[in-house]
Amino acid sequence: MVHVLSSRTLLRPADPERSRVFYGEQLGLAVYREFGTGPERGTVYFLGGGFLEVAGRSETPPSPALKLWLQVADMAVTREELTAAGVAVVREPVREPWGLVEMWIADPDGTEIVIVEVPADHPLRHRP
């Protein structure tokens, strides 16, 4: 049995500085820690209950199988803040058949990011 103490998602961007601007300035994720020096230095961001590490460099595009899922409190406010920061919305907010409101954006390398709001009437808000 694996006893997990912490976890993080690792991204190896094509252009690390461009990705740091996207995650740190445009999305406004708070920095947990930074390490190393130079263009491939690492930055670890708080990501709700986990962490996102942007470090190193990759010459290949990210796998389309990788997606980030970020839950927010208010989709309308989040959409407004992101577009004001220059983030392009790939898919406008939609209430899905399963009841969540989802909006899609992408990072500079094309990694898809699902922004999710759990509406007040959704079963996830009303656990027994």
Which secondary structure elements does this structure contain, and how are they paired or packed?
Layout (H helix, E strand, L loop, with lengths): L7 E4 L4 H11 L4 E5 L6 E6 L2 E5 L12 E6 L2 H10 L4 E7 L5 E6 L5 E6 L11
Parallel strand pairs: 1-4, 5-8
Antiparallel strand pairs: 2-3, 3-4, 6-7, 7-8
Key attributes of the depicted protein:
128 residues, alpha/beta, 2,3-Dihydroxybiphenyl 1,2-Dioxygenase, domain 1, four-stranded mixed sheet, 35% strand, globular
Q: Supply the CATH architecture.
A: Roll
What is the average of the pLDDT values?
A: 93
CATH-assigned homologous superfamily: 2,3-Dihydroxybiphenyl 1,2-Dioxygenase, domain 1
CATH fold-level topology: 2,3-Dihydroxybiphenyl 1,2-Dioxygenase, domain 1
What is the helix fraction of residues, given as a range?
Answer: 10-25%
Shape: globular
Radius of gyration: 16 Å
Strand order of the largest sheet: 1-4-3-2
Low-pLDDT windows of residues: none
Q: Given this structure, which CATH class is correct?
A: Alpha Beta
Percent of residues in β-strands = 35-45%
Number of domains: 1
Briefly note the structural class of the backbone: alpha/beta
Q: State the total count of DSSP E strands.
A: 8
- Report the total helices: 2
Described by strand count, sense and barrel closure, the largest sheet is:
4 strands, mixed
What this model shows, in words?
- By secondary structure, the protein is of the alpha/beta class.
- It has one domain (8-125): Roll (2,3-Dihydroxybiphenyl 1,2-Dioxygenase, domain 1), CATH 3.10.180.10.
- The chain has 2 helices and 8 strands.
- The strands form 2 sheets. It has a 4-stranded mixed beta sheet with strand order 1-4-3-2, covered by helices on one side. It has a 4-stranded mixed beta sheet with strand order 5-8-7-6, covered by helices on one side.
- Strand 2 and strand 3 (42-47) form a beta hairpin.
- It is globular.
